[in-house]
Amino acid sequence: MNFGLNKDIVSFLLKLLGFFGVWYLIYELWLLPDGRLDEWLSVNLIDVSGGILSLLNVDFFMRHRVIGLDGTAGLMIVDGCNGLEAIGLFIGFVIAYPGDNIKRALFIPAGILAIYLVNVARIFTLIILQAHYPQWFDFAHDYSTSAIFYLAIFLMWVVWMNYGDKPSPKVAP
After folding, report:
1. What's the CA gap between 102 and 168, in Å, rounded?
2. Distance between CA atoms of residues 92 and 27, nearest Å
């Protein structure tokens, strides 16, 4: 019985679901309860964001997982907002979609770095909004910055679909 689905699409979807199932179990049963990876990533994001604010010569404060401009409550980077789950999402798309394994091995770390940098920009934007445009903070936090975050993941996956699936050029002897 053919439902009009290409076997490659079905294969991709099954790989994707399998990866997400494994990722969910690893994250929910081991990484999240352990907390060290989330903790490290959150504190690292705070440190990098603080470094940017220092370069801009802005008065701010940092306390473990909290950062903000002086005079504000600050942002707390909690588990689930540090990009770790998004990194898993990105890796799942890249692993599930066919492509050259060497290119995949290079593309995944580059994509993780890109997600990390998008998240730093997201945190920086929220810090500025909280201090100068508080009426926009909740909307930006709940919708627009997350949309930009996931749009970046989608665009990187599109790049992977176009870059990773192409055979490497043959070098003439």
Report:
1. 10
2. 13
DSSP string, 9-40: HHHHHHHHHHHHHHHHHHIIIIIHHH-HHHHH
SS3 5: coil
Which sign, positive or negative, has the C-alpha torsion 100, 105, 109, 110?
negative
60 with 69: CB under 8 angstroms?
A: yes
The helix-helix angle for 145-163 and 101-132 (nearest 10°) equals 160
> What does each C-alpha distance from 86 to 29, 54, 72, 129, 172 come to in angstroms?
17, 27, 28, 23, 40
Tell me what the pLDDT averaged over the chain comes to: 89
* pTM metric for this prediction: 0.85
Nearest to 49 by CA among 39, 35, 63: 63
Q: Which of 50, 157, 61, 43 has its CA nearest to residue 110? A: 157
End-to-end CA distance of the chain: 48
- What tokens were used for 51? 């470094």
**Minimal CA–CA distance to 120: which of 39, 35, 36, 50?**
50
| pLDDT tens digits for range 64-119 | 999 999 999 999 999 888 989 889 989 999 999 988 999 999 999 999 999 999 99
